[in-house]
Amino acid sequence: MAHLTEGAEGLRSVPALLARNATQYGNSPAYREKEYGIWQSWTWAETAKEVEELALGLLNLGVNEGDFIAIIGRNRPYLYWSMVAAQSVGAIPVPLYQDAVAEEMEYVLAHCGARFAIVSDQEQVDKVIEIQDDLHQFEHMIYLDPRGLRKYDHTRLHQFSHVQEQGRAAREEFIKELDARRSKLGYDDTCVMLYTSGTTGKPKGVVLSNRNIIETAKASSEFDHLKVDDEVLAYLPMAWVGDFIFSIGQAYWSGFCVNCPESPDTMMTDLREIAPSYYFAPPRVFETQLTQIMIRMEDSGTFKKKVFDYFMEHARKVGPAILDGHDVSAMDRLKYKLGEVMVYGPLKNALGFSNVRVGYTAGEAIGPEIFDFYRALGINLKQLYGQTEASVFITQQPDGEVRSDTVGVPSPGVEIRISDTGEVFYRSPGVFVEYYKNAESTADTKDAEGWVATGDAGFIEESTGHLRIIDRAKDVGAMANGAMFAPKYVENKLKFYPNILEAVVFGAGCDRCCAFINIDLAAVGNWAERNNIAYASYQELAGHKQVLDTIQAHIEEVNASIAQDPMLSGCQVHRFLVLHKELDADDGELTRTRKVRRKIIGEKFADLVNALYDGSPSIYTETEVTYEDGRKGKIKATLEIRDAKVVPATPQKLAAE
């Protein structure tokens, strides 16, 4: 596999890309942030100045080459600058999930041995202070927002703007040292360390080099023709590899502008104002947006609802074909243009998708109905398949070859092979260096030839070369009768319904599948209000008879759909219950990236799983929960268990595959 030893076009580090952009795109916008309702903007030239002043301030604080610097907070230009400033002085940025509790942060900070942290506000300062006595190597913390911090002990606590001021003041003293450190940054030096979400155990520190990030950013940017006048909204966790590759890797390679919303609460408003041309969201975001659309349409008048339904039916029929440039009759095109004026255009504008040229979803499989809905509107939504260990990109869908049931062809420079057991392996210039301080896991994941085991089961279509992912390899199993068990496939179909927020399907080694359901409080609550149904809590609404009837109807529709697939027809849901609480990352049931921790849920709710399989009509349970302030409590509930109608089908045996 060809590697560019001197770096793509001689650019061997992110700081080198920044220097190029400051010269080449100096007056183009690099960052925007909405603050107090007003968009602030920084050009590439201004960004380079901000980063350099912070880097000088870090040298003044005593940052050494090879030091780890934790970055904690929501998406803000200052925190992106912090990552590049850390790289500029030869240190390694380690972004953490801002909603992680102190205990989770303690593990990461201790594991990497961070001497410094740059955080957003008082909340994050308090979390680090809570654990810093146990972090023997920890020395200094820098914060952005001074509110509430005036009376804190500032011996080892520094305001971001003051560090920059000290950097400016000490420029003559440190500029030669900074230039020396920047110029010696190599292509195989560490660019960033990102921790996995820890679905099955403790998070692992994934070491990614400048080569990994720059080669991947170059290849993926060229694949989708990203350019300097593109716009992206940076709202996903900075600790997630996707945000790093989009908001640092591709942004610095292509020179496009990174826009940071004012807060999570204003994200949708800010999205509409920016109307990005390049957009990424995990399936959950698209599911939530679709739920909100459906809620609004249910609340609209009869005429408006009929117009929406009429044109959406036409859009599903011809929209994707028009988007992909296929032949469509003149009458259908005319009708679609009318739909664009009446429905699709206003809807895309309300979603903030009016200018989307390239949209991606990844992280987990998206329900085909959800995926097709957005493409029917004329939004060029595509799927990619990736991992932290790959610097994101393993496969992408080329324009004109987009389907809901595949994740595309190998990204440029990526090789893929399928093992005898059906597991997907890949290698590419983006393959990670190692898991930090974990040689055993590194060897288990990456072999001597650079092939990485994804842990996913899939196959490559002979006719198209597209990769199809079935499920996590560890989750795919056989049922008692030998039929294939692929829970994610069923869960994604269930989550298409706005009323269903999350689903967890069980059935490996069993004679039938059963499911836990989480209702979507926004969607079901809206229905309750429209129908004058009073409820005092999530738990009360989740146990309402009409809610259970509705969920049962959804499950039975999904069963009828699954029965059409001979390979997976055995995965129909026979029995289900609606959980009395939402699955929560703070309770360990989801990862910080909102992925289901199936094994932990199965163990934690073992009494409920047993009741699903032993025929019980109901089950009393007590569950420990974590409140927002960290306190623990218990909730008690008696849950009704229902049977769902299944469709007779002849399941295809796993062995036959």
Strand percentage: 15-25%
Mean pLDDT, rounded to whole units? 92
The main sheet comes to: 5 strands, parallel
Low-pLDDT parts are: 1-5
Order of strands in the sheet with most strands: 4-3-5-6-7
Give the CA-based shape: globular
How many strand elements? 29
DSSP summary: helix tally: 21
Helix content: 25-40%
CATH architecture of the largest domain: 3-Layer(aba) Sandwich
Structural class: alpha/beta
CATH-level-4 superfamily name of the largest domain: ANL, N-terminal domain
Q: Could you say how many structural domains there are in total?
A: 3
Q: Report how far apart the termini are.
A: 32 Å
CATH topology (level 3) name of the largest domain: Rossmann fold
Radius of gyration: 25 Å
Level-1 CATH class name of the largest domain:
Alpha Beta
Question: What does the model show?
Answer:
Helices cover 39% and strands 22% of the residues. It is of the alpha/beta class. A hairpin with a 4-residue loop joins strand 14 (381-387) and strand 15. Helix 12 packs across helix 14 (368-376). The chain is globular. Residues 1-5 have low confidence and may be disordered. InterPro entries: AMP-binding_CS, AMP-dep_synth/lig_dom, ANL_N_sf. Residues 19-436 form the AMP-dependent synthetase/ligase domain.
Q: Layout of SSEs?
A:
Blueprint: H1 14-24, E1 29-35, E2 38-43, H2 44-61, E3 68-72, H3 77-88, E4 92-96, H4 102-112, E5 116-119, H5 122-131, E6 140-143, E7 157-159, H6 160-169, H7 171-183, E8 190-195, E9 205-209, H8 210-223, E10 231-233, H9 241-254, E11 257-260, H10 267-274, E12 278-280, H11 283-299, H12 302-323, H13 330-351, E13 358-361, H14 368-376, E14 381-387, E15 392-396, E16 409-410, E17 415-418, E18 423-427, E19 434-435, H15 439-445, E20 452-460, E21 467-472, E22 477-478, E23 484-485, H16 487-494, E24 500-506, E25 513-519, H17 521-530, H18 538-542, H19 545-562, E26 573-578, H20 598-604, H21 606-614, E27 618-626, E28 632-640, E29 642-643
Parallel strand pairs: 1-11, 3-4, 3-5, 5-6, 6-7, 10-11, 12-13, 13-14, 25-26
Antiparallel strand pairs: 1-2, 8-9, 9-19, 14-15, 15-16, 17-18, 18-20, 20-21, 22-23, 24-25, 26-29, 27-28
